[in-house]
Each structure stands twice: as C-alpha cells, then as structure tokens.
Amino acid sequence: MNTVVAGVVRTASRYRWTVCALLFFATVINYMDRQILGLLAPMLQKDIGWSQVQYGRIVIAFSAFYAVGLLCFGRIVDWLGTRISYALAMFIWSIAAILHAAVGSVMGFAMVRALLGIGEGGNFPAAIKTTAEWFPRKERALATGIFNSGANIGAVFAPALIPAIAVAFGWRAAFVIIGAIGFVWLVVWFFMYRQPDGSAQEDDLANEGDEAKAADAANAHAGAPGFKVLIKKRETWAFIVGKFLTDPVWWFYLFWLPKWLNESRGMDMQHIGLPLVVIYAITTVGSIGGGWISSKLLSKGWSVNAARKTAMLICACAVLPIAFVSQAENLWVAVAIVGLAAAAHQGWSANLFTTASDMFPRRAVGAVVGIGGMAGSIGGVLFSEVIGQVLQRTGHYWVLFAIGASAYLIAFAIMHVLSPKMAPAKLEA
C-alpha cells in the first residue's frame, strides 16, 4: 500500500512541473502579445501620427481594461476552475492580438488594446491558483518565478522577432503571426492539463508544510469568498499595496523602454532589438532567482514571513541604481542598470504573487490575485498618464526612473505594517 501511495505522489510530483511548463509558455505568449505595440510604436507613430499623450492613452486603455479583466477572471477562476478559465482567457486575448491588424487609428488601437487587456487579465489569477493547487508552499515562489520568467522570455523573443517580421512583411502581419501562437497553446492545454483529482496523495503534496491546510480541509466544500469579505482583510490590502505601487514600474519598462532607446539613445527599429534582448535576458535570472531565494530560505527552516520578506527586501534594494540610469553615458552601462532593475522587479513579483497563496486558502487565491492585479492596473493607468504628460512637457525620463527606484521600498514598508507576520487570513466557510 505504501509503495502505491509513494508512486502516486512521485507521479504528481513529476506532473506538477509539466503544469509549470504550461504556465510558463502561456506567460511567454501573454507578454509577446502585450509587448508588440511598444516594439512597433516608432513605426506606428509614423504611420498613424499619434502624439506622446495619445500613445499614453492607448496604453491606458489596455491598463484600464486589464484591471477589469483581472477582477472578473479572479472570480471566474475560482468559480470555473483553472482549466476552463485559462483557456477562455487565452482565446480572448489571442483574438484581440490578431484584431490589431484590422485597425488604423488611435481609437481603433484603443479598442483592441482594451479587449486584449480583458483577456490577458486571466493569465495571472489562473496561473497563481494553479500553482497553489499543485505545489507545496516551499516550492511555490520558485514555481512562480519559473513561470513568471516567461514574461522575460516573451520580452526576449519579441524584440528578436517582431521588428524583423514588421520590416519584412509589415506591422499588420506581425500582429497576426504573433497573435496566432495562442491557439497552438490552447490545443496543447486541453490535451495535457487536468485539474488536481482531489486524491489524498495529491492534496498532501500540494499542502506540504502549509499552515492553511487545516482551514482548507475544514472548508473543503466552501465556496469562493466574495469581494466584500476579502476587501476587509488587512492581508488583502498588503497584496493590493504591493501591486499598486510596483506594477506600474514594470509596465513603464515594458511599454516605454523601446521609445526610451529610440528617443534618448537614438536607436532605430533595426538596432533596438539587441539591447532589449539583453535587458530581458538579465530579467529572467532575477525572476527565477528571486523565487529561489525564498524557497531556499524556507528549506533551511526560515518562517514564511522571514523568507518572503528577506527576498523582497533584497529585490527592493537592487532596484535603486535605476534612479541614476539617465546619467550613464555608455549605452551598455545603461542597459545593465535597467536589466538589474527589471530583474529585481521580477524577483519581487515572484514573491509578491506567492504571498497571496501564503495568506489565503486556495478557494480565495484567484479573487485575491484579481483584486491586487486590478489595483496594479489602476496604478498603471495613473502612471501612464503621468509618463505621457512628463515626456510631452519635458522630454526627459529621469524623473520617471527616480519614481521607479523608490516604489519598492515604500511598498515593502507599507506591506510590513499591514501584515507584520504574514499569518493566514481568517475566512469563515
């Protein structure tokens, strides 16, 4: 009997890394579809003639509806489960990515970016909930770091592929080709993924070392808690603050770095790819490394509170040099500084996402991630307007980089006040 149980656990153990690979490739596609507009912005600006403020508002359209998508999919994931909800999200955002090829005005781009935002809002609530279902607590930050590194890989492939496709076949073809990749993932997802079957062995594996195990077991048949319940919890607000203050910085890197290289460093479409590839290659190390740090500390017997916060503090401090990037005269020194900051953000993000499953039972994880993600998107909307206005009036990026440098330490301090011990939130069945 023990041999059979051990065999089931080993099978589940191997399968959970297959699940992680599926999440990784979905996130690669998510970020390729998201980043294509920023990469093609110099070309599209010439074709369509939008101003800095108009481009900022196209970014805002995505950010605003991404917030809506996160909030809605946070609930959908908890209601329908990860298999169906993830597929629905991928379908919506892939269709939206392809539809970019059919528009030719500022309003048209704003509309398809809004639809893209709604669909892409399903990625992280579904991925974080899937990770909570399949991975023990001591591995969740590492697993999150691995699949979240798909954002960086997507950001590496995007500048390597998209400008070349656009130069050879036109920007409309670039949107169609990249958008169609999502349908390939959909086929693989339906063929390979299954929900956890609820067996005792799989449940024990996923809850290994998890303080919330008893609560989950006691409320096994409880429904997902409503937003009114979650919004009253200090633990929810800790996650909200972390996302609201730091997500906009990542979006600044994602949407505005190509324009920064073009305007401040004089790089054209044919040469802009290599610096971005280097930046996001560095970022990949940070994403996995940030998750590895807290997982390693947990394996050495550190508390969840100490392990997560130590890793997040290291990342918050590593961002600080970005405040001085505008003073770097050498292109590759500037690229290294930006790469370090972006890597630190992803290490921070891997641990921040994991705090949702640290502090909440699995039945609430999707909704909490959705609420926090919505807050991050609202922050992105506000910061995008600030960015557009600052650049329209001054043409200088240094103020924006200085804001990005300070955001993480401020977020860390507030999160610590709201959740000093990162104890699991108390939710009634």
Automatic annotation (TrEMBL):
<protein>
    <submittedName>
        <fullName>Major facilitator superfamily MFS_1</fullName>
    </submittedName>
</protein>
<dbReference type="GO" id="GO:0016020">
    <property type="term" value="C:membrane"/>
</dbReference>
<feature type="domain" description="Major facilitator superfamily (MFS) profile">
    <location>
        <begin position="19"/>
        <end position="423"/>
    </location>
</feature>
<dbReference type="InterPro" id="IPR000849">
    <property type="entry name" value="Sugar_P_transporter"/>
</dbReference>
<feature type="transmembrane region" description="Helical">
    <location>
        <begin position="395"/>
        <end position="418"/>
    </location>
</feature>
<feature type="transmembrane region" description="Helical">
    <location>
        <begin position="54"/>
        <end position="77"/>
    </location>
</feature>
<feature type="transmembrane region" description="Helical">
    <location>
        <begin position="15"/>
        <end position="33"/>
    </location>
</feature>
<dbReference type="InterPro" id="IPR011701">
    <property type="entry name" value="MFS"/>
</dbReference>
<keyword id="KW-0614">Plasmid</keyword>
<feature type="transmembrane region" description="Helical">
    <location>
        <begin position="146"/>
        <end position="167"/>
    </location>
</feature>
<dbReference type="InterPro" id="IPR036259">
    <property type="entry name" value="MFS_trans_sf"/>
</dbReference>
<feature type="transmembrane region" description="Helical">
    <location>
        <begin position="83"/>
        <end position="103"/>
    </location>
</feature>
<dbReference type="InterPro" id="IPR020846">
    <property type="entry name" value="MFS_dom"/>
</dbReference>
<feature type="transmembrane region" description="Helical">
    <location>
        <begin position="331"/>
        <end position="353"/>
    </location>
</feature>
<feature type="transmembrane region" description="Helical">
    <location>
        <begin position="306"/>
        <end position="325"/>
    </location>
</feature>
<feature type="transmembrane region" description="Helical">
    <location>
        <begin position="173"/>
        <end position="192"/>
    </location>
</feature>
<dbReference type="Pfam" id="PF07690">
    <property type="entry name" value="MFS_1"/>
</dbReference>
<keyword id="KW-0812">Transmembrane</keyword>
<feature type="transmembrane region" description="Helical">
    <location>
        <begin position="365"/>
        <end position="383"/>
    </location>
</feature>
<dbReference type="InterPro" id="IPR050382">
    <property type="entry name" value="MFS_Na/Anion_cotransporter"/>
</dbReference>
<feature type="transmembrane region" description="Helical">
    <location>
        <begin position="237"/>
        <end position="256"/>
    </location>
</feature>
<dbReference type="GO" id="GO:0015134">
    <property type="term" value="F:hexuronate transmembrane transporter activity"/>
</dbReference>
<feature type="transmembrane region" description="Helical">
    <location>
        <begin position="276"/>
        <end position="294"/>
    </location>
</feature>
<keyword id="KW-0472">Membrane</keyword>
<keyword id="KW-1133">Transmembrane helix</keyword>
